[in-house]
Amino acid sequence: MAKHRLILSSTAALMATVAVVGFQLVNPSIAAFRPSPKEVVDEVWQVINREYVDGTFNKVDWQKTRKQYLSRDYASQADAHRAVREMLKTLDDPYTRFMDPEQFKSMQIDTSGELTGVGIQLGMDEETKKLTVVSPIEDSPASKAGIISKDIVVKIGGKSTEGMDINQAVALIRGPVNTKVTLGIKRGDRTFDVELTRSKIELHVVKADIRDTPTGKVGYIRLTQFNANATADMRKAIQAQVDKNVGGFILDLRSNPGGLLYSSAEIARMFIDNATIVSTVDRKGESERLVANRQSLTDKPVVVLVDGGSASASEILSGALQDNKRAILVGTKTFGKGLVQSVVPLGDGSGMAVTIAKYFTPNGTDINRAGIKPDVVIELTDAQKEQLMKNRTEIGSNEDPQYAKALEVLTKRIKSPTASLN
Questions:
Q1: Which of 151, 177, 266, 310 has its CB surrounded by the most CB atoms within 10 Å?
Q2: Count of C-beta atoms within a 10 Å radius of residue 283
């Protein structure tokens, strides 16, 4: 299971900052010449024909599709790009998507750099086909304005998002720093507008500290994304807390939309000594496994916080820890994305993400659409979510009901490893 193949792992969606960061390319070379518009259409068709996870192409006659789209003449690259998006839409897979050269270039922003946007990570609800907030980026304009996971974006700048794909939404949301964009948000039965000012956003994916509790020191680590730096940053955080002899760990994966598959596997190895982490199955039914290889940093108790914004790589890590009985999950059901994408550069400088495999937890569970159910379910009301978004310093504190429950569970585990979850 080569790292260069599973580059986006299970990233839930494009960010409205126009960057899915920390990826590697399947083929890093891009042709020096610019192909004709029709060649780009055929190139996309070939990638799907060769790589797509479902050999039936979701019951689409893919040979007929090729004849249909290659029988046309395209006056420009823009015409070809529109045709490609239309062609991919027939697969009914929101994660297999086309990116024009500007969008593709944006994806290659270095993960340690600054991103420009409003800080919303968008997903497409597979049942309703609605643009849905996976999670806001911490300290971004979106998070400060109180946008929360599972909000539905119904309008962008006054334009309805009905029938709009993620790339189109991103193009409307992004813009120069200090300019404004108004989003129409539907939350439950409520619909309201939120005006956001675009800004540069710094991504800090690991935040960690040691808490003093009545039972001793506890390590708290919040991981917000599985990017290229996450593995090294997590290793430093865990080791620093091990060196301080903490009694256990709370790993907070709430609102973490995912990222790189190999990053989630490497982090799982820091907690799991010798077991299966995840398995993938491609279109040929070939299964490969990632396993822990006796490199764990600690055997102390672990509690993992998850919610509806915990997606893809977050679900791989939490599923591995839960199935191997290495950690207790606390919170609410995860997002439910069990698909793996690869990013492919195209000859005209554009690119595409294509779903190439399904993944399964160590127990063989397919969590796509279903998500992972925590061992201890703690729901937050909309009011509580909004309170935490407005007062972000309360996240991971005793004012945070889910954290408070996680600490209670961890305390029981530290005192008695066989204590009841209740």
A1: 310
A2: 17
Kindly report the backbone phi and psi dihedral angles of residue 224, in degrees, each rounded to the nearest multiple of 5, phi listed first.
Answer: -100, -10
The tokens of 7 are what? 């580059």
Q: Is there a domain that residue 214 lies in?
A: yes
- pTM here is 0.74
Q: Which listed residue (144, 337, 358, 412) is catalytic?
A: 337
Instruction: Give the H or E element holding residue 240.
Output: helix 230-243
For 274, which DSSP code? S
Is 323 marked active-site? yes
Cβ-contact 170, 154 below 8 angstroms: no
Rounded Cα gap, residues 122 and 399, in angstroms: 28
At 161-208, the pLDDT tens digits run 999 988 789 889 988 899 999 999 999 999 999 999 999 876 668 999
Pair of tokens at residue 131: 């643009």
Last residue of a domain, one of 183, 202, 221: 202
Question: Dihedral of CA 387/390/391/396: which sign?
Answer: positive
Confidence label for 124 from pLDDT (cuts 50, 70 and 90): confident
- Known active-site residue 263: no
Identify whether 422 is part of a domain: no
Active-site residue, 337 included: yes
Task: State the chain's maximal CA–CA distance in angstroms.
Answer: 72
Catalytic residue, chosen from 165, 233, 252, 323, is 323
Alpha helices in 33-114 (DSSP H): 37-51, 62-70, 77-89, 101-107
Cα(227)–Cα(205) distance, rounded to whole angstroms?
8
Domain limit, last residue, from 175, 202, 229: 202
